[in-house]
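Marked as duplicate of an earlier ticket. Keeping the data here for the record.
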Amino acid sequence: MTNVVTVERPGAEAYTRRRIAWVRMKKAVSGRHFWLGLGGVVAFFVIWDLAYRLGLPRMEKLESPLYVFREFTLPPRGGTSYNPALESKWGYGVWTSAWYTDVGMSIGRILQSFAWSLLGIPLGLLMGWKRSIRDFVFAPFELLRPIPPISWVPLAIIMFPTKEAPIIFLCAIASFFAVTLNTLLGVESIDPVYFRAARCLGSSEWQIFRHVIVPGAMPYIFTGVVIGLGVAWFSLVGGEIIAGTWGLGYRTMDAYINVSTPTLLIAMFSIGFIGLLMGVGLRVLQRRMLAWRTKSGASI
């Protein structure tokens, strides 16, 4: 028999990965779920515009979404030849450095606080793994968890006499409780049969922790991480309003004081859009790390 030698071209693996990624993205964009979601977003803005134009109660004081989009995309006055029809009145959008500074500051604060909140994952795993650790930690944990993030503001300013640290602390502590609690719930949801089977096969406690507890709790961990990200954004807005000088949350209060409704709405929807992108990224990571659940027929 003749041996056939297959010679792969350099970069063939990278090309295959790009091709697979392109096919997946094309499938997602052409799918029914994508168009339903896009239709929901369009319907929201259409209803908002109609409510504003009809002067419905509580809506007549807002601005039209088309006007807000115009303010966001047009250059500020003085940036080009003066023409009110082609220039932004309030000067806050993609043509101004203030918007990029606010976005960068808010994202940086969120990433730092979110990284600190991930300490709740090992704490939740340990609480679910060892009953003694849970009995020792759970009581003070439940004592602190119901305290609203806004109540921590004076204490955060006293503890961290800097501009950035109090904001990061407020976001981290709010997200920390959500991540820890969902991780603990994930460990408690594991079927006890798996623990008994592992012990019958001679697994040590550390092996049970690595191969049973961590994989079994992983879906709940990702749920807690997604919830914690949303909670971090809630706390960020409050923290920036009180102690910040830049950021999208600070910009909402500044726009309210200056009666700049378009700027207020631009900052709000910027928060929503960035949070949406972060949530999508976490769900993509979840699908990649929990591919074994989709292969077994489970939904994530």
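See parent ticket for discussion. The chain is about 75% helix and 0% strand.
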